[in-house]
Structures are given as structure tokens and as C-alpha cells.
Amino acid sequence: MPFTLTPSYDDNPRLQDLVDRLRDYLDGELAAYEAEAGLVPESTYTRAVLEPVWRRSRELGFYGVHLPPEHGGLGLTHTELAALKEEVGASGRILQHSVLGDMGGPLRAGSIIEYATGHQLEKYLLPVVRGERACCFSLTETDAGSDVRAMTTVAVPDGDGWRLTGHKVFSSAGPFADFSVLIARMAGGATEESDAEPVFSAFLVDLDAPGCTVLPGQTPMSGEHIEADIVLDNCRVGPGQLLGSVGDGLRIGLGRVTTNRLLHCPTVLGLARRALDLTLDFARTRQVFGAPLGALQSVQHKLADMATAYYAARSMTYDALAALDAGAKPRTEAFMCKLFVAENAFRIADEAVQIHGKAGLVRGAEVEWIFRRLRMFRVLTGSSEIQKNGIARNLLMPTPPSSSPLVPAAPSRNPLSPAPPL
């Protein structure tokens, strides 16, 4: 894999065509749309702003492109999808998350299609694929992040359905979603006084249903208004809203963790690539003491370190993705990629700000926003410490227990035992 800031895929004509068309859309039509709408990274998005992007991306073949042909996609490999996600991340577009459907779209809903009934496909998921509806995912609670089993949102039986009560936080895309894929603990499971294992299920919850309230979520340091709290107060869901079977909640909520962990990395690599590209341009054009900033050896060394870190992070990510496409289960490698990409992408962004000097410190500077965004990735989707726990555990236990790899084992009562990976 050669080092380049403009990757080409001559050995894969289909992918090269997709990348070329995607770049044209990102740099042309979408850039013009954002400028006309006056969007900045901290704008509050409305459905009126987002839906045209969803539909246009669908018309161009990008929205849901990873899905199988029967759902309107091309059935991309993980490596092909990663290449598109990297291009989106490197584009500098504000609405980059809406092009492939990361934020409330097919990339959010795609992994749960296999669990859906025909009715659920028609009512909930296929409209998302067509850009007509949006969804969010609600798992996290204030005191249930890495320790998802600590969630208190409960589903109490009510006739042939259930009534949900609880408070979910950090539901990305919640402010403009129509429904949530929501995980709840089934009433009658474990309690503090009981050794019974808790049982969790997944529900498709209409966000305009009685007893369901969507509140503005906390604003992350990126400044994006994309989070919501989902508050449930005796909200009824019918049997047709149970996704999968009772007890499938963590399998659905945490399913495909290795794949998802790896597929977060290309977007981050794209952001790091954008930061490096912007910094190279600044170093070439910024004049200091009568010469370009890039003539200073100290700056050259920083640029060399940034490029080397990007190349290493990208190479290991695509190596793991190739193994995944070949049928392997690169669990340890996925932990390693998430750790290495997160830490090194942030270092790239940090050096980008340093080289830009005061110009990189002001709000509105693109490298400043990338810095904030990449700082978050060291925590989101599993912190760096969680990744290290997973790596070390796999090194120390080459043959893991026979329990399902998709559902973390119940935590040991020994307080010194490591927490389950996420």
C-alpha cells in the first residue's frame, strides 16, 4: 500500500469509479449546497436541510451503497466501504456524515436488517435506505456506558407488548430521527439481591409515540448538534416492535463489534489526512522570515512524523479489513487499529494546530475543528484504555471462552477483574 494523500484503486475499477464520482460530488455539488445554506460545523441541522442530501446521495448511488443488491446497494466489501468512508472524512464537508448514511441512515440501520421482520423492513428500515426516514441508536445511559449491563431502562410486560421506562443519552441523530433502535432490560431479570442474569431486548421505538420525549442532548466538544436524550415514561411498544427475539438486545446492540470498530477507523483516517493536507498547504504558502514555513527543518520533521503516522495507521487498518473480507475474525487487530488510529490521528491533528500557530487556534479554522473532533475519537466507540484491555486479554488468553463473541460476558464479582470490551 503506497503512501499518498490521493489514493487510487486501479486494481478495482468499480471502486475507482465510485471514488471518482464521490470526490466530484463532495467537492462540487455538496460543497455548493453547504455554502448556499450557510452551514458551519456547529450549525443546527433540520430535516429540511438534511433530506435533500440523503435523497441526492441515494440518486447518485452512495446512500446505502454497502447494502446487498436486493436492498438497492452494491454489496461492497468492507475494504471498499472503508475507502469511501475515508474519502468522505477527508473531504472537509460539513454534511459528510449524511452522504453514505452514517448519521441516521443506512449505515446505522444496515447491521440490523438481518433481524427485521418483513413488516419492520417495510415500515422502518427500507424507508431509511431510501432517505425518507431516519433512525438513531439508544443504548447508553448516564451510568451505563462501557458497563452496558448497568442500564436501568426497563421493559415491563403489558398484554402482548411492553411498556418502556428509562432515560437514554447520546443518541446520535436523535434530534432529527423518526425512530430509535433502543435496548432495554426486561423486567424480572437480575436485581442487586439476585444472581439471575439480566435479559436485554431491542425495540423499534417511534419517537413521536405517547410517553416518548426527545430532548436536546449535551453538545460534544466538536460543537455538533447531533445528540439527543430519549426519555421514556411508560411508553408502550407492541409485539411488532420487538427486534429479533427477547434476549437478543446485546447481540443486536453490540453485534458486529469487530466490524464496526474497524469501520470507524477510515473516517478518522480521512480527517487525519485532511489535517495533514491542510498543514502541507499552509507550510508551502505561509511566509516566515522571507521564506516558506516549510523551509524550517523543525516543521519538516513534524510533517514527516505526521505523514509516517498516517501511513502506518492506514496500512494496519486496511490489512485488518482485508483479513475480515477473507473470512477471518481479526478481533485483536481491530482493538489494535482502533487504539493506534485514534491516538495517532489525534497527534496528527495536534501537530497541525501547532504548525498553524495562532491561525490554528481560532474558532472557525478547519484544523481547530478537526482537532476537537479527533480528540473525541480517543473516547468514543470504546476508549483507548478499553482497546488496551481487549488486546492484553487476547494476548494472555489466546483461546477465549466459548461464550458468544458478540455479547460481553457478565462482569466478575471480583472488583479487580477487567471490564468487558466494547
Task: Please provide a written account of the structure.
By secondary structure, the chain is an alpha+beta fold. It is built from eleven helices and ten strands. The chain has helices spanning 13-37, 47-59, 78-89, 106-109, 118-129, 249-254, 257-285, 297-325, 331-356, 366-377, 384-396, and strands at residues 135-138, 154-158, 161-168, 179-186, 200-206, 212-216, 228-237, 242-243, 287-288, 291-292. The strands form two sheets. Strands 1, 2, 3, 4, 5, 6, 7 and 8 form an eight-stranded mixed beta sheet that branches. Strands 9-10 form a two-stranded antiparallel ribbon. α7 runs antiparallel to α8 (297-325) and α9 runs antiparallel to α11. The longest helix has 29 residues, at 257-285. Residues 247-396 form the Acyl-CoA dehydrogenase/oxidase C-terminal domain.
